[in-house]
Amino acid sequence: MKTKKKFNILSILLLIAFFAANVADFMSDFNYAMMSMSDGAEEANNEYDSPRGQTYYYDFFNVRPNHRYDIAARNTKTGKIDSLQIIAVHAKVTGTEEINKRDTIFSIVGFFIFIPIFFCSIYFLYIFVRLVWSVNKGEGFSKNTTHRLKVLGWLCLALFCLEIFETTAINYRNGLVDYAQYPISGTYETFPDFLLLILFFAFLLFAQFFELGQKMKEEQDLTI
């Protein structure tokens, strides 16, 4: 009974962590979308006499600054002057014909990637809840448990592959952005989440353990 109780507690904590992570991502994206930017391009456009066009808010870029520490700011807590190193920028990009085309392609591809990611995530939660329920009913070492563990693993692999397409689309969209002062080395989403790939192998490994336990249980029942 204690083992089953611990299993349920850990399962609930895992679900809470899953929802908390998604809520945190949503709030971060929402704050990012609502964040206002002062238009520093106004003076630059006047200086270089470049035409204005449609603007796009791009993700945070990883940058390699020419000067390691090039900004001084007062630390309000200590009263001292500290040096700041810029390692990421949030760009408001003036559109060109090519940028407009890439942004349109990115929006279309992103929409069609979001749909399977959403349904895979919902199906993952459904299978996980069914797994917890079946274990509580005493079906720990059963074909259904092994099957559900394998399904969870393959869903993680599917989400990983979808993230590859998503990051490829992001990199394609951001391919026309670079700055002389802060050369771009990619974005924070340059690579997919490899934790999903680790979970894929972990769930398949757990499935093999449960399958082995099931066979041992069947052999023990036959012996008895």
Walk me through this protein's architecture.
With 224 residues, this protein is of the alpha+beta class. Helix content is 63%, strand content 12%. It contains five helices and five strands. The strands form two sheets. It has a three-stranded antiparallel beta sheet with strand order 4-1-5, with no helix packed on it. A hairpin with a 6-residue loop joins strand 2 and strand 3. Helix 1 packs antiparallel against helix 3. The longest helix has 40 residues. It is elongated. 8% of the residues are buried.
Question: What are the main properties of this structure?
Answer:
alpha+beta, three-stranded antiparallel β-sheet, 5 helices
Radius of gyration: 25 Å
Strand order of the largest sheet: 4-1-5
Helix content range? 55-70%
Q: How much strand content do the residues show?
A: 5-15%
Helix-strand pattern: HHEEEEHHEH
Biggest sheet character = 3 strands, antiparallel
Q: End-to-end distance, in Å?
A: 24 Å
Quick check: average pLDDT?
Answer: 79
Secondary structure class reads: alpha+beta
Overall body shape: elongated
Could you list the spans in which at least 5 consecutive residues all have pLDDT below 50?
none
- By DSSP, the count of extended strands is 5
**What is the count of DSSP helices, taking H or I runs of 4+ residues?**
5
Report a brief summary of the structure.
By secondary structure, the protein is α+β, with helices and mostly antiparallel strands.
